[in-house]
Amino acid sequence: MNSIITRHTLSVLVENTPGVLSQVSRLFSRKGYNIESLAVGTTDDSEVSRITIEVKCDDLMVEQITNQLRKLFCVYSVRLLPPNSSTRRELVLIKVKAEGRDVRNEVIQIANIFRATIIDVSSKSLTLAVIGQESKDDALEKLLCEFGILELVRTGMVALERGEATINDNDDNKETDEFDLGKNVL
Amino acid sequence: MRMKGSQIVMECLLEQGVDTVFGYPGGTILNIYDEFELHGYKEKIHHYLTSHEQGASHAADGYARSTGKVGVCFATSGPGATNLVTGIATAYYDSSPVVFLTCNVNENLIGKDSFQEVDITGITMPITKCNYLVKDVNKLADVIREAFAIARSGRPGPVLVDIAKNVTAATAEYEYLPVSEHPNHGRLANLMRRTGRDLGTPEPDHGDIQKLLDLIAQSQRPMVLVGGGVIRSKGAVTEFRKFMETLDAPVGSTIMGGGACPGNHPLFTGMVGMHGSHASNIATTQCDLLIAIGCRFSDRVATDPATFAKQAKIVHIDIDRAEIDKNVLTYHHIIGDARRVLELLNEKLPRHDFTAWKAEVFSHKELPLKKDNVLHAHEVLETIQEATDGKAIIATDVGQHQMWSCQYYHFSRPGQLLTSGGFGTMGFGLGAAMGAKVGNPDQIVVHCTGDGCFRMNCHELATLEHYHIPVITVIFNNGTLGMVRQWQNLIYHKRFSQTDLDRGPDFVKLAEAYGLKGFRAGTQAEFAQAFQQALQAGCGCVIDCTIRMDAMVHPMVSAGTPVTDFILD
User: Running along chain B, 569 residues long, what does each successive block of 10 average in pLDDT?
Assistant: First the structure.
């Protein structure tokens, strides 16, 4: 086990009912670990939500968190996404001060380079939307700083495994069975 | 049939076979309480009105632990609900199946800081297996069915159902549904569909079982550590005894495992951990295979996880996968119900001979017990043991008297020792004893307590008197918070900060004030006489035993140090 603190991405399928999000996030605060990022939304099945959580901790701790999550009745499955074979993306909206044509043009050029889209414009500001990972988003944010960022919001990372692997793949292994036995309710 | 939510609650309790409820009424839960009179449910469900909601919560817990059934506790919103919190946590830490039923304010008042409103589902989230806020009367029946199913299954535990008051007044269709049909309805059915497995009969992995048998075959010095899982799993104790006797190896126990192995069994080494016996703690450290069944290596057992059973391959048998490698890293694990795992092991386990290893383990003896003209804790417990033929249910509070009860009373069956092992709740004992006596009217129930603990919830004596529940309370009265004083004595250089209890009340007079009988004992003879009188009294009794202030629990290991580093022999 690696005792070095690294970033882990957990993908969690949960029942789409009130209170589930606080139940899930509570496990992190209880262990004293800060959630770096959290994103939640429904899936193709309206009764199921998917939560993507990023947390910085060592391997042992992330295993503990995974175990405790899998024990919850509202949790359907948990996947620790392998960093090398997962794609992670985050949407960032940035509202930049942009008065005058020259400034606006310059901001638009930067946006183009980063493949950010302009989603709102006024005589004094521009709002950009960019999708990417930390490195790209941070670089854009840095560049826009000199124009003056009025507001910035991130959705939190969402992630999927590359290729045809899905979160449901581990449904049929022994460990999943073991957790299901633990929460058997019959 | 169309009926009010409050009546649906009652009907659902009857579905589950509930005939006993502990609780305390209040504004929001009035509709439910009204059903006892309005539709005569008091004929089928006996409600015990306690002095305080905490007492009700412990009583439901004690009832559950001693009968193996699901305990039920009612409370109203706000302070009624928050008064349950300690009781819920106590049940959670010791995996006791209790359904707590509270009502909240009307739905339109929720979230407005209304009178006696509290977010009890939010508060109890970390201390329940699952909890619910019911806002739709049409879902009420299924939620209650699910609550009971979750409380009793897998690793048991408390579940809380909070019902908005207007839901108890609204009407819905209700159809009786036998418990066997419940899995085919509501969210239980969803869970079945989703997992696509028969979760009703969890079958341990046979390869895992074989691996343990192989490890046993290779072992020279095996040791068994039994925990509360064997107590909670129905029928597991019979299989466990067969297992330990065939294996013929030393058996240590956690506090929650008390009763799994008979206390006077030649293989029994006693408790393991902070107040574990020499034999237990040394054997745990020297064994080459530790078979831990239904325990979780809490910090009171594995005081130092890094050195705990350091020579051993640890095999952990548990129903809760999340317990594996949580506190102590293990070599192998088997997931399943203790009874079934042990049954499978017993099918193939050959008889073993570990005579030399056993001789070594049992060569470690305890200090001889004191006998002089003052009353000692072990004398009190030996007297109770003798007078009750070792068959009484013992409920304890927390502290020195708790450890003494576990060390000197020989428990021989599950549900005989009721103690707050995980949460360490002072004030647990009287409520638990009350619940146990209600659930087991034919058993003698003794409540062992300290003068500190007893003060916390002694108002339940009123409940004992009113319902004629003949619980015998034995107070180990040393005029101090004994366990805290012991730490101050040994670790805090005898600075006895705020532990002296040099104050009232006179417990004998207190008992009499509640209409019960009180006795005082200063010697073993006096105690024996008082206890006999209490057994004959047919009502609740309090025996105030004076013991020495500086009496200590032997042996003792400091928190965070290896279990063999005794600071007190």
Answer: 97 98 98 98 98 98 98 98 98 97 97 96 93 96 93 93 98 95 80 62 87 97 97 96 97 97 97 97 97 97 96 96 93 94 97 95 93 94 97 98 97 97 97 98 98 97 98 97 96 96 95 98 97 97 97 95 94
Q: Do A179 and B194 touch (CB under 8 A)?
A: no
End-to-end CA distance of chain A: 35
Question: Which residues of chain A are at the B interface, by a Cβ-Cβ cutoff of 8 Å?
Answer: 18-19, 22-23, 26, 30, 63-64, 67-68, 70-71, 73, 76, 174-175, 177-186
Q: Sketch the domain layout of chain A as residue ranges.
A: 6-81+161-182, 87-155
The reply to whether residue A186 touches residue B336, judged by beta carbons under 8 angstroms, is no
- The H helix count followed by the E strand count for chain B is 23, 22
Domain with CATH 3.40.50.970 in chain B: 2-195, 377-558
pLDDT beyond 60 at A56: yes
Distance CA B254, CA B123 (A): 29
Instruction: Give the active site residues of B.
Output: 53, 115-116, 165, 483
For domain A6-81+161-182, the question of CATH label 3.30.70.260 is answered with: yes
Residue with tokens 């043991």: B385
CATH 3.40.50.1220 domain locations along chain B? 206-362
B125, B132, B192, B194: which to substitute to probe chain A, counting the most A Cβ within 10 Å? Answer: B194
A56 to A32, A34, A60: CA distances (angstroms): 11, 7, 12
A60 pLDDT band, cuts 50/70/90, is confident
pLDDT of residue B73: 98
* Range A75-79 average pLDDT: 87
**Would you say domain A87-155 falls under CATH 3.30.70.1150?**
yes
Task: Render pLDDT for A92-101 as a digit per residue (tens, 0 to 9).
Answer: 999 999 999 9
Q: From the CA of B335, how many Å to the nearest CA of chain A? A: 6
ipTM above 0.90, yes or no: no
Q: Which two tokens stand for residue B55?
A: 């007492």
Residue contact B322–A71, C-beta within 8 A: yes
Q: Do A184 and B194 touch (CB under 8 A)?
A: no
Q: Find all residues with CB under 8 Å of A161, minimum gap 6, and list them.
A: A79, A81, A82, A85, A86, A87, A167
CATH fourth-level superfamily of B206-362: TPP-binding domain (3.40.50.1220)
What CATH number should be reported for the domain whose range is B377-558? 3.40.50.970
B154 CB neighbours in chain A (<8 A) are: 181-185
What percentage of chain A has pLDDT greater than the value 70? 93
The hierarchical CATH code for the domain B2-195 is 3.40.50.970
Task: Nearest by CB to A180, from B125, B199, B205: name it.
Answer: B199
Question: B126 contacts in A (CB within 8 Å)?
Answer: 26, 30
Indicate if the alpha-carbon torsion angle B17, B20, B24, B26 is positive or negative: positive
Instruction: Pull the structure tokens for residue B409.
Output: 């009373």
CB-CB under 8 Å, A178 with B335: yes
Residues of B in contact with A174 (CB under 8 A): 205
- Give the range with max mean pLDDT: A20-29, A159-168, B175-184, B493-502: B493-502
A123 phi and psi angles, rounded to 5 deg:
-65, -20
Q: How far is A135 from chain B (nearest CA, A)?
A: 35
For A170, other C-beta atoms within 10 Å of its C-beta total: 14
Nearest residue in B to A69, CA atom? B322
Cα gap A56→B88, rounded to integer Å: 32
